[in-house]
Amino acid sequence: MGLRLTTLSENTSSIGNFAAEWGLSILVETENTKVLLDTGQGYSCVYNADTLGIDLRAIDKIVLSHGHFDHTGGLREVLRRMRKRVEVIAHPDIWQPKFSRRKNEEGRYIGIPFQQSELESLGALFVLDKKPVKISDSIMTTGEVPMTNSFEEIDAALLVKEGTSWKQDAVMDDQALIVKTKKGLAVILGCAHRGIINTLYHARQLTGEDRIYAVVGGSHLLDASEERMWQTIAALRDLNVQNLGLCHCTDLKAIVLLAQEFSEALFFNKAGTVIEI
User: Fold this and answer.
1) Is pLDDT above 70 for 1?
2) CA end-to-end span of the chain
3) What is the CATH number of the domain that holds 246?
4) In this structure, are residues 152 and 144 in contact, taking their beta carbons and an 8 Å threshold?
5) CB neighbours of 134 closer than 8 A, spacing ≥ 6?
6) What is the mean pLDDT of residues 183-189?
7) Three-class SS of residue 138?
8) Is the CA virtual torsion 76, 82, 84, 89 positive or negative?
9) Structural domain that includes position 66
10) Would the pTM of this model clear 0.90, i.e. be above it?
11) Backbone dihedral region of 223: left (phi > 0), alpha (psi from -120 to 50 degrees) or beta?
12) Between the N and C ends of the chain, which has fewer C-beta atoms within 10 Å?
């Protein structure tokens, strides 16, 4: 086995006995290492792991892409199933009081739905770092993703609360996983709040590898303008990405356009999807 990616939680599900819920969780397996990126919103990660016959106790480490409920809400059930001490790698800002406030909406809490102490009592050993973390010879986190292009921006509806005041959340905790393969990089995204293209540029800079073989996960293109969509498509072509398994916060409208432009290179990454590289 070179690299296997198994989507354990996503908004939609493949044919079979899989549960779907708004969120994302992807199991990343190489020859010697098993890493769980995110845990979905609730029960689906554990349920779908059982459906696929995956033993969550075999996971070596958990990585949180950022501190939103739909990527961390399944953490309690995952830890209960693992029944062991396990490192949970994330950015320190995952514990910020995160909210969303869209048109005609009061501030709605969207952060981690648990106390850190409870998760630690269940076995979580939090490793909080702003910088990239090397997990194995082939797997690392991106750490903080710099905003380097002119067309990707942070969702203005995302806020953090400081006392009684609000400020826009820069989502500095947004990060991805990078896996080196013989065919190039596989980049596994949570939501890419700081931009899918910014994340891919950063992955190439960190690794010194220009080839990007696969990009899998959320791209937060759900509210992207037409101009941003076309700039994203142009950048993906320029990067010569070979496989796009986008899902979750990409939204169906964006998926349809990407499918038209990238044809068979794009697949919709639903719960229950297994990819081998």
Assistant:
1) no
2) 8
3) 3.60.15.10
4) no
5) 140
6) 98
7) coil
8) negative
9) 4-276
10) yes
11) alpha
12) N
pLDDT at 105: 77
**Higher-pLDDT residue of 52, 166:** 52
pLDDT of residue 102: 86
Q: At residue 84, does pLDDT exceed 70?
A: yes
**Number of folded domains in the chain?**
1
| Both tokens assigned to 163 | 């006392």
In single-letter form, the type of residue at position 198 comes to: N
Q: What is the pLDDT of residue 104?
A: 78
Residue 179, classed as helix, strand or coil, is strand
Name the token pair of 187: 């980049």
- DSSP-assigned letter for residue 76: H
pLDDT at 106: 78
Instruction: Return the structure tokens found at 101.
Output: 């406030």
Task: Spell out the alpha helix ranges (H) of the chain.
Answer: 44-52, 69-72, 75-82, 116-121, 196-207, 226-239, 252-262
Distance CA 69, CA 237 (A): 32
Would you call 30 exposed, middle or buried from its count of C-beta atoms within 10 A (0-12, 13-18, 19+)? Answer: buried
Torsion over CA of 205, 211, 216 and 221, rounded to 10 degrees? 70
Phi-psi bin for 107: left (phi > 0), alpha (psi -120 to 50), beta?
A: beta
Give Cβ neighbours of residue 255 (< 8 Å, ≥ 6 apart). Answer: 246, 247, 266, 268
Q: What is the pLDDT of residue 242?
A: 97
How does DSSP classify residue 169? -
Q: Which residues of 224-246 are buried (b: 16+ CB within 10 A; e: fewer)?
A: beeebbebbbebbeebebbbbbb
List alpha helices for 104-214, DSSP H: 116-121, 196-207
Q: What is the CA radius of gyration of the chain?
A: 17
